[in-house]
Write a structure and sequence with these properties.
heterodimer, A: about 800 residues, Beta-Lactamase, 6-stranded antiparallel beta sheet, 22 helices, about 20% strand, rod-shaped, disordered N terminus, B: about 140 residues, alpha/beta, Rossmann fold, 5-stranded parallel beta sheet, 5 helices, about 35% helix
Chain lengths: ~800, ~140
């Protein structure tokens, strides 16, 4: 061997140790340990140098010692990777470790410390060895450094001294290399992320380009991690919670071939899924011995399952270009959750070191967790930014669509028959446009019974699946509301006026399995309301992998409010139209009343004038009758004039103020007779309706004091007789009589006739202004239904009463004017 | 002369009849007192055609009685206020009578009535008045046309 190049320790005159340490400290990656071992081997002209470590679970201080040592790292002169056998406690290495002394094996075939079956040494062809114990800085790990020589010449005392000088330095130097690696890796990751963040914030880039940058950054991190750990695989799986919540997709990897499994979910049977589910890191010593170590793994990681979906042994053998006779290095794996604030965003996984040390140490896992933390912060920031970006776009779109919806609603509400169903259908189209993933939508409104919600609009293919009968049944469902306990989600939202949001329906007990749409994955139900009125609900459901955007709930709530407003406006318009109609009817009624009053005034005046002329022209011809007619016509004119006055006063809200004076028998008798005569004259003689006055009852005025406004009394009586004249059947008698009421002993003037009936149910109605029964409207060519209304007001102004006794079996109707009466002593 | 007088006020009808008889001497006059009675008259009209119709506008459907004829929907809805106009339209719709002049004789102002259109050149308006001469003059005027 050329010692000029092979022995830096002795060739660098004066500073052998310094040279060794300097070389060691130049190492940046974890595999720098191999370089240190190499230099020790070269220093003593050895074939190989191996760092053995006590395997976890071993106890070499026990009696007898148990456990074994494994190869943490090694350097062999021919550069081959093989021989990863364990060493038992009863071996030269074990003896050195237990005694804490250097063991010099001059001949492996005869040395008593060598194990009985030195398989490892034989495979390497080792003839002699020297073993030096070492202690790792954390003092929990112990090991030895063994130097092997294939030739029969044992290590000289000087060489042994050199090894004893250098070996104890290895753990400290290795530790230093690790610290450098930590700094190097974390700085590298930080630089990648800093660059990526600058790019992410470039406002000129499209969302797709920024997303590609993010993935590229994660890929660079994977490359950096793989380089530091010298591992074949570093993979990162992350969840895009907005697009596919619960799905952890492969974002980047250094594994040289395509993965069969690129997507993970929680609760699956896999190592990565275990990390995602438990939010705990995992480190497996050697996947190649997974079955052997299953019990220990199960103890440490309860429920962890690993299946070799990649045929990893063959793959690694290929990647490392191993010859058939080469041993497969240990397939150590470690994975850490990428989490922030207790929320698992993904996982990072490292597997299979390309060179020693082949096992991932606890410190390696700690470092991986540090990298995971940096990724989690970056990914979380990116997702937040992405969501903010999408939310911003979503709100912009919402704002635009709401403007369009308002225009549409305005156009529909402006019509004579506001088409609310069109508005609901359009609102669902807006919902689908602004809420990504809104696939099955509907609006349910309170139905005409007021006790259930029914569909008024639906949108989405799912609604129209199946036969017409099935579609009809689906859309015809009703959901009772205002029950003691709400029995549907819609009813609950309707009652509470609170939005319901469920991003994971499958795992939520409130979503019934027998629902119309069992495939639904998420849903929002927003109340349709305004003020204190709740009209219905807006239901939005998604079935795909993509989740609703963060703004979905707020948008649904606003849409619900807007729909509530439309409904409120529609109802208000309806009520206004109704009121307008009523107002128009009132105006029409008043116009007709005035027209009728004018008619009633003009007709008798015309006729009175005509009769006066006739009287003058044909004096002596039935003069009494003509004069009576003239008097009747003039009285009618007076009555109509008074009706007009009272109509105007009462219509304007002015009270009637009767001028009270005591009634005497003579004036009452005269009033009754003349009123009867006047009104009888107005009746077509062919109808043969007679008016009879029964004057006997007037005598009660002798013993009772009654006060009344005589003009108003005359008005009231004539109004009643006018009705009797108009509505009496042919060949009937109208009876006019007076007296005291039986029970309260009040003075009354009554008119009884046989004619159009008044039913009991009509008694309250017939004294209202403008009321006339349908039959009554058919038998008169004048009058507008204000007669009884005026009479009622006159009687009430007297402190009296208008009493109408409905038509009895005798077919007679009786109307009474009842006055307050004071009995005279 | 043959006149059909549609007037539900018997005093008015009696007066008009007496005035017309005095003015036209040999006069046949059919007095119709309700809208339903007028439709019955229309159904039973014989070959002899009236020379003129004198029609009140505000007119009752029927006289009260236990067996009143059922009014059509339009009458139920609109009442008596324009019954005379409905009678006028019935005359216009009757081929035999549509050419006969109609005098709407009413206390209503002409402005209160819905406009009399050009398609009914034989319909005339006259406001009721205590002077019979105006009616007589109007009858002569429309008959000369």
């Amino acid at each position: 061997m050329n010692r000029e190049t092979a022995d830096p320790i002795h060739d660098k005159a004066g500073a052998p140790l310094t040279s060794f340490v300097t070389l060691a400290l130049d190492q940046k990656s974890r595999s720098g340990l191999s370089e240190i071992l190499k230099n020790i081997a070269l220093a003593v002209d050895a074939y190989g140098c191996v760092l053995w470590e006590v395997a976890p679970g071993s106890d070499f201080d026990a009696e007898p010692p148990r456990g074994h040592l494994f190869v943490l790292d090694q350097w062999l002169q021919d550069g081959r990777i093989y021989a990863f056998d364990d060493l038992p406690a009863h071996s030269a290495a074990g003896h050195s470790l237990i005694t804490g002394m250097t063991v010099n094996v001059e001949d492996v075939n005869t040395d008593p410390h060598v194990s009985k079956d030195p398989r490892y040494l034989r495979r390497l062809g080792v003839e002699s060895a020297v073993v030096v114990p070492i202690i790792f800085p954390d003092s929990t790990r112990r090991g030895v450094i063994a130097l092997y020589r294939k030739s029969a010449s044992p290590f000289s005392p000087e060489e042994i001294a050199t090894v004893e000088q250098l070996a104890p330095l290895v753990p400290a130097l290795y530790q230093t290399i690790r610290v450098k690696m930590i700094f190097s890796l974390t700085r590298g990751v930080d630089e990648i992320l800093s660059r990526a963040k600058l790019l992410t914030h470039d406002g000129q880039l499209t969302r797709e380009k920024v997303e590609a940058q993010v993935r590229e950054a994660v890929q660079q991190i994977c490359d950096t991690v793989s380089e530091s750990f010298k591992c074949i695989e570093t993979s990162v799986f992350l969840e895009d919670r907005a697009r596919a919540p619960g799905t952890y997709e492969l974002i980047a990897t250094t594994w040289p071939e395509p993965f069969e499994k690129t997507v993970y979910h929680r609760h699956e049977k896999s190592l990565t899924s275990w990390v995602l589910t438990h939010a705990r890191p995992v480190k497996i010593f050697d996947l190649g011995n997974f079955e052997r170590d299953r019990q220990a793994i199960e103890t440490e990681y309860r429920g962890l399952v690993w299946t070799d979906s990649l045929d990893i042994k063959s793959s690694v053998r290929g990647f490392l270009d191993l010859k058939p006779e080469d041993d497969l290095p240990p397939l150590s794996i470690m994975a850490a959750p990428i989490a922030i604030g207790g929320k698992v965003l993904g996982a990072i996984r490292c597997c299979s070191a390309k060179m020693g040390p082949y096992y991932f140490a606890e410190a390696d896992l700690n470092l991986l967790e540090l990298v995971a933390a940096k990724i989690s912060q970056y990914w979380s920031d990116w997702l937040n930014e992405l969501e903010a970006l999408e939310e911003n776009r979503s709100w912009q779109l919402f704002s635009k669509k709401m403007g369009e919806l308002n225009q549409f609603a305005l156009s529909r509400l402006s019509t004579d028959e506001p088409a609310e169903s069109d508005i609901y259908a359009e609102a669902l189209r807006v919902t689908r446009a602004v809420i990504r993933g809104a696939e099955i939508n509907d609006i349910r409104m309170l139905d005409e019974t007021g006790g259930a919600l029914g569909f008024v609009a639906t949108l989405g293919h799912a609604w129209n699946k199946g036969s017409l009968k099935e579609i009809h049944a689906r859309k015809g469902l009703r959901f009772p509301v205002r029950t003691p306990v709400p029995n549907s989600i819609g009813a609950s939202v309707f009652e509470s006026a609170q939005v319901y949001f469920n991003q994971d329906v499958a795992n939520h007990p409130s979503y019934p399995e027998e629902s119309t749409f069992p495939d639904v994955k998420r849903m929002i139900v927003a109340p349709i309301w305004v003020g204190e009125y709740t009209y219905g609900v807006l239901d939005i459901r998604g079935v795909g992998e993509q989740g609703f955007p963060r703004s979905a709930v707020a948008i649904a709530e606003l849409l619900g409010r807007q729909l509530g407003l439309y409904r409120y406006i529609a109802e208000t318009i309806k009520e206004l139209k109704l009121a307008k109609g009523e107002l128009a009817a009132q105006v029409r009624e008043r116009i007709q009343t005035l027209e009728d009053l004018a008619h009633q005034l003009k007709s008798p005046i015309n006729q009175a004038q005509a009769r006066v002329q006739q009287y003058v022209a044909r004096e002596g011809l039935n003069a009494d009758k003509r004069l009576a007619a003239i008097r009747g016509l003039i009285r009618k004119t007076k009555r109509v004039a008074m009706s007009t006055m009272l109509y105007a006063a009462l219509g304007g809200g002015k009270p009637i103020r009767p001028k009270l004076a005591p009634l005497d028998q003579d004036s009452i008798v005269k009033l009754l007779i003349e009123a009867a005569s006047d009104n009888e004259l107005m009746i077509d003689p062919q109808r043969k309706v007679v008016m009879n006055v029964f004057r006997e009852g007037v005598e009660v005025l002798q013993s009772n004091r009654i006060e009344a406004d005589f003009d108003m009394l005359e008005q009231a009586l004539n109004n009643i007789l006018d009705n009797a004249a108009k509505y009496s059947y042919p060949n009937s008698v109208v009876e006019i009589f007076c007296g005291l009421t039986t029970r309260t002993r009040r003075f009354h003037i009554s008119v009884s006739n046989a004619g159009l009936p008044i039913k009991s149910a009509e008694i309250q109605e017939c004294v209202k202004r403008g009321w006339r029964s349908e039959a009554a409207r058919m038998v008169t060519g004048e009058g507008s239904g204000i007669g009884l209304w005026i009479v009622k007001n006159i009687m009430e102004a007297h402190g009296g009463e208008l009493r109408i006794i409905p038509t009895a079996a005798s077919n007679r109707t009786e109307v009474k004017l009842i006055f307050p009466t004071q009995a005279l002593r | 002369m043959y006149i059909v007088l549609v007037e539900d006020d018997h005093l008015q009808a009696e007066w008009v009849e007496s005035c017309l008889k005095e003015a036209f001497g040999d006069l046949k006059i059919d007095k119709v007192t309700t809208e339903s009675e007028f439709y019955s008259w229309l159904e039973e009209v014989e070959d002899e055609r009236p020379d003129v119709f004198i029609v009140d506008v505000m007119l009752r459907w029927a006289d009260p009685g236990p067996d009143m004829p059922e009014p059509p929907l339009e009458v139920k809805k609109n009442g008596f206020y324009r019954a005379g106009r409905r009678c006028q339209e019935s005359i216009a719709g009757n081929q035999k009578l549509s050419h006969i002049p109609i005098i709407l004789y009413t206390v209503l102002e002409e402005l209160d009535l819905e406009a009399l259109d050009d398609k009914q050149p034989n319909v005339f308006y006259l406001r009721k008045d205590s002077e019979p001469e105006l009616l007589i003059k109007k009858i002569r005027q429309v008959l000369r046309r």
